[in-house]
């Protein structure tokens, strides 16, 4: 009798474990807490871009960012897929600025300042609530 009860308990635990595992896979594939309508998707607002880059904001948006589809306005952006890491952004900017081993110190300092603006964008990401009906 006790062995039968242990087997039933074991089956219930395995079933519960599988349900939790499948739910975690679902969350991982659909974003954070998508089921509850709190899917967090990185969004960079135009105001933040303008604050960091000033008059260059529109050029930065054109070169590095895409408009967020489904957003409420044209003021929300995300990085283009090939700029998915800070390392990719830094490599692109270094190549664009033709940084070599003999680059003068003042240029390297300007590059560092420029890249810090991107780090502020990547670390100051705003979040918005996605539409449950999409």
Topology:
Elements: H1 2-30, E1 40-45, H2 46-53, H3 57-64, E2 65-67, E3 76-79, H4 86-96, H5 105-123, E4 126-129
Antiparallel strand pairs: 1-3, 1-4, 2-3
Keywords: Membrane, Transmembrane, Transmembrane helix
Transmembrane segments: 6-26
Description:
With 134 residues, the protein is of the alpha+beta class. The chain folds into two domains: 1-30; 38-129, no CATH class. 56% of the residues lie in helices and 13% in strands. The protein has helices at residues 2-30, 46-53, 57-64, 86-96, 105-123, and strands at residues 40-45, 65-67, 76-79, 126-129. It has a four-stranded antiparallel sheet with strand order 2-3-1-4. The protein starts with a helix and ends in a 5-residue tail after the last strand. The model is unreliable at 33-39 and 129-134 (pLDDT under 50).
Distance N to C terminus: 52 Å
Strand count: 4
Structural class: alpha+beta
Number of helices: 5
Described by the principal axes of the CA atoms, the overall outline is: elongated
């Amino acid at each position: 009798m006790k062995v039968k009860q242990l087997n039933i308990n074991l089956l219930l635990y395995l079933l519960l474990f599988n349900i939790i595992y499948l739910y975690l896979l679902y969350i991982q594939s659909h974003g954070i807490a998508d089921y509850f309508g709190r899917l967090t998707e990185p969004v960079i607002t135009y105001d933040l871009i303008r604050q960091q880059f000033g008059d260059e904001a529109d050029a930065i948006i054109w070169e590095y960012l895409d408009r967020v589809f489904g957003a409420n306005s044209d003021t929300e952006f995300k990085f283009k897929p090939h700029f998915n890491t800070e390392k990719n952004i830094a490599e692109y900017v270094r190549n664009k600025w033709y940084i070599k081993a003999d680059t003068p110190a003042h240029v390297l300092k300007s590059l560092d300042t420029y890249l810090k603006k991107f780090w502020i964008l990547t670390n100051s990401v705003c979040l918005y609530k996605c539409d449950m009906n999409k």
